[in-house]
C-alpha cells in the first residue's frame, strides 16, 4: 500500500487541526475524510474502508474521562476495522498514548508536529500494515543508539517516548535512581532531535557551588571577579542551537533556581559582570534522582521552575525492575570489556545468570557495568561463574543507609576509597567513576570517614 492509494480518516474536535491535516494530505493521498464528532465513528468506520485513522486522544464530549481516545480506539477495534490507528496527543498525554499502543494503536504523533514527520509516520503505519497482511513478523524495538539497551516493557515505552518527543523542542525531565542511565536517555533525545547536528552540553549542576553556578552556566566578562582574566562563554551559550543537559537539577538551591528560571523565561543570558543580554536557542533536558513528590515541595523546589522544565517527564525504572534486561546488559558489557582488555569473551554459566537475576543492584546499570568489568579482568577458566561476580560493598552500605561505625564492611569501604583516590592522584571525578558513584555520593563518604 502506497501513500498515494491510501484513504485517511481524521477525527479531532479542533477544526484548525482538521483543516491543517486536510490541506497537508489532499495532494498526498487518495482520500481524506475529516470529522469533528467522534460519535460518527459508529457510522463512518463500518461503511468505509480506511487504511489509516488519525484519532485525537481527548474530546470535549460527554465522557469527560480524560482518555476518550482509548474509548474510541477500542470502539474502532470492536467494529472490526483493520485500519492502522495513529493517536494524536499533546505533551501531557504521552503516557496515555504509549498505553494506547498496548491496546492496538499503530503509533502516535505529538502536537504540534512537523508535517514531514506526520507523513513519515503515516507511511510507516501503511508499511507495517502491508507487512502484517502479508504475514511478515513484526520488528522488535529494543535499541536506541549504541548503548541504551532494553527489551522490557518499561524500556520499550521509553523508546517510544524518545522517538516521538525528540523531534519536538519540548523540555524534558528525566527521573530515576542513580546509575539508571539518565544521561544516555538525554543523549538519545538529542541524537534523535532536529538539533542532532548541534552541540550537546552536559552540566552537573548539583556539583556547582553558589559562586561558580552563574559563571559556569551563563559566563562572565573580564574583571567580573578576581580570577576572571578574560571573557568566558557559559554553558548555555555553548549549547546554542543544540541541547543542554542539566544533571542533578534537584540539588540546586532556591537562589540558583531563580536565576535559572529567569534565563528559561527570557531565553537570554547575561554574563556575570555585563549588562548585555544574549539570546539563546537551546533544547533543555534535566535529570534528577529525587522523586517527583520531593520536587513538588515548595520549600525545596520552585513550582514555576518545575512546570518550565517538565513539559514531558520520562521515569527510568531501576534495574531490579527490568527483568531479563539484566542479562541483555550483562552480555553487552561482557562483549565490550572482553574487546577492551583483549580477552576471549567467556559465556556466563547458569549460576552466574541466576546470581545476576537475583541481585537487587542498588547501584543499577552502573553497578552492573563495573561488576562485569571486574569479572572480565579477573576471571579464569572457560566460563564466567557466580564466584566471579563480586558486587560492591559500597552500594550495600549506601542502600542500607549505614551510620559510620567501626565494622569490617566500613573498613573495606574506606580502604577501597583510599586506594582508588590514590590510584587517580586525588582526582575525585575519576575515582567516583571507578567506584560507580556520583561525585556527591563520594564526597559524602569522604566526610563520613574523615578522609
From TrEMBL:
<keyword id="KW-0805">Transcription regulation</keyword>
<feature type="domain" description="Sigma-54 factor interaction">
    <location>
        <begin position="148"/>
        <end position="377"/>
    </location>
</feature>
<keyword id="KW-0067">ATP-binding</keyword>
<feature type="domain" description="Response regulatory">
    <location>
        <begin position="7"/>
        <end position="126"/>
    </location>
</feature>
<dbReference type="Pfam" id="PF25601">
    <property type="entry name" value="AAA_lid_14"/>
</dbReference>
<dbReference type="InterPro" id="IPR009057">
    <property type="entry name" value="Homeodomain-like_sf"/>
</dbReference>
<protein>
    <submittedName>
        <fullName>Sigma-54 dependent transcriptional regulator</fullName>
    </submittedName>
</protein>
<feature type="modified residue" description="4-aspartylphosphate">
    <location>
        <position position="56"/>
    </location>
</feature>
<keyword id="KW-0804">Transcription</keyword>
<dbReference type="InterPro" id="IPR025943">
    <property type="entry name" value="Sigma_54_int_dom_ATP-bd_2"/>
</dbReference>
<keyword id="KW-0547">Nucleotide-binding</keyword>
<dbReference type="InterPro" id="IPR058031">
    <property type="entry name" value="AAA_lid_NorR"/>
</dbReference>
<keyword id="KW-0597">Phosphoprotein</keyword>
<dbReference type="InterPro" id="IPR001789">
    <property type="entry name" value="Sig_transdc_resp-reg_receiver"/>
</dbReference>
<dbReference type="InterPro" id="IPR002197">
    <property type="entry name" value="HTH_Fis"/>
</dbReference>
<dbReference type="Pfam" id="PF02954">
    <property type="entry name" value="HTH_8"/>
</dbReference>
<dbReference type="Pfam" id="PF00158">
    <property type="entry name" value="Sigma54_activat"/>
</dbReference>
<dbReference type="InterPro" id="IPR003593">
    <property type="entry name" value="AAA+_ATPase"/>
</dbReference>
<dbReference type="InterPro" id="IPR011006">
    <property type="entry name" value="CheY-like_superfamily"/>
</dbReference>
<dbReference type="InterPro" id="IPR027417">
    <property type="entry name" value="P-loop_NTPase"/>
</dbReference>
<dbReference type="Pfam" id="PF00072">
    <property type="entry name" value="Response_reg"/>
</dbReference>
<dbReference type="InterPro" id="IPR002078">
    <property type="entry name" value="Sigma_54_int"/>
</dbReference>
